[in-house]
Request: fold
Amino acid sequence: MAQENKSKSLKHLIEEIKSIRGLAWNEFRPKLEKLAQDVKKKDFERLCLESAIFNEAFYNSSGRYGRVDWVATRILEYLLPHHVEVGDKALKKSEIDLVKCLVITNGIYKDISSIDAVAKSGSGDSQALAASFCSIKVLRALKGHKSSKIRKVYYNRLGPVECLDEMLGDSIADIRYEGIARAPYYYDKLKTLTKEIARGPFSLLINKIPLDYLPMLVANRNVKNSWVSQRIEERINSGR
Reply:
């Protein structure tokens, strides 16, 4: 919807939000309670769905940027339970990631299947959050997702018993670290990780890789670290 089509009541809602967002808490709460009584559902819906309106209400401020998300969160968390059906519509149509995150986090909806829709075809933090609560069927469809946040949720929920090889081959070091940490000792795929460059995963690999592959780690740049080289030497000398 074009911003020039704002109704008089919507303009009033925007101005009311602007007037309270810089207040101290003891003044903020009473104003918020009054706002909840006065706001019209159709105006609040547009606030939650349209980024241009949302940004005008919350982000055209006086430079107190550290407070912006806090204010938006407090206002929306207070108003959304008064209009639960707006939460359902926001999960399907909102342009604003923060709104969708708040709806999911606080369970402000009537149709829980909307979480699957956000996980499947959403974006940003709200998609990663939805992936934490979606059905396993939808979760499995997120395999290999380009977002590392979503892949982490995928691995955490399905677990290394199902996803170990994927975790070991992931492009993110801390995911590979978790994979190596959960891998069985002398696991066959560990042999493919001798060129691991991240210090954390490499340090775990020293103890878990088959002993006859340990010499292949000596050429790795991580061995320049005296602590790492000492651990390799100790394992070679142990014969285990």
